[in-house]
Amino acid sequence: MMILRIVGFLLAALSAVVLFIALKGLWRAQRYLLSTHGINEPIPLDLKARMIVWGWALGLIAGIALIVLSYR
Known about the structure:
Blueprint: H1 2-36, H2 47-70
Helix pairs in contact: 1-2
C-alpha cells in the first residue's frame, strides 16, 4: 500500500507542476500575441488552456484517489 501512496503523491505533484508550466507558457504566448496587435485587455482562456486545466484536474483527482486507496 505504501507504493500507492507514493505514486499518488507523485501524480498530484506532477500534475501541479505541469499545470503551472503549461498555463504560464500559454499566458505568455497569448499576451505576446495580443500586445503585437495593440490589445491590452484580458480575454478568457482558449480551448487548449481549458483542456490543460481539465487534464490537470483529472490527474490531481487520480493522485488523491490513489492516496486515499493506499490507506484502506
